[in-house]
Amino acid sequence: MLRGLQRELLHDVDVSILLVFIFILELAAGISGYVLRNDTYNLVSNTLQSSMGKYGGNTSNEITYIWDEIQVDFDCCGVNNASDWGKTNDKLFNDTFLPMSCCRTTTGAIGTVRCMDPDHKETLRTTGCLNSFGSFIKAHAVSLGAAGIAIAVIQFFGVLFACYLSKQIKLQQGHTGF
């Protein structure tokens, strides 16, 4: 059976090892985010294309919401352009109908809009979301990676300080050892 001080020392070592392990994981995540930033377009393209067929309907409200937000916020339509919506094999869209978020409309409009008509071309968002959204993600991937590394470094110094403080307290109490 371990005495109180020995148990306390083992606990301190266990906590230190756990914190160092978390530090290594955070550092690895930050580095991989920075290294993989060039694969952003492939990842965004695959994700956008695979989710287009799930737009609309009762079971994909989250996907519909996300697509609408991306298309409005980034002033884009489809993956490469608006014609991508006609390729989704979905009865909801064809060459004349698009999601409302592909069209620049007035607030409060409901349903689908014929913004591909020659009379309404100025209301159609023509840029594909891959370029605008992909550029946004790629630009911020470096920031996220840097933030992850900065947090990991701060945490590392926190672990070192905690170990030092624990040792100083034990020395003050007259205990020797770790």
From TrEMBL:
Cited InterPro entries: Tetraspanin/Peripherin (IPR018499), Tetraspanin_animals (IPR000301), Tetraspanin_EC2_sf (IPR008952)
Stored PANTHER family: CD63 MOLECULE, TETRASPANIN
Assigned protein family: Belongs to the tetraspanin (TM4SF) family.
Membrane topology: Multi-pass membrane protein
Cellular compartments annotated: Membrane
Primary localization: membrane
Organism: Aedes aegypti (Yellowfever mosquito)
Alphabetical list of Pfam families matching this protein: Tetraspanin (PF00335)
Segments traversing the membrane: 12-36, 141-165
GO cellular component terms given for this protein: plasma membrane
Keywords: Membrane, Transmembrane, Transmembrane helix
Record-given protein name: Tetraspanin
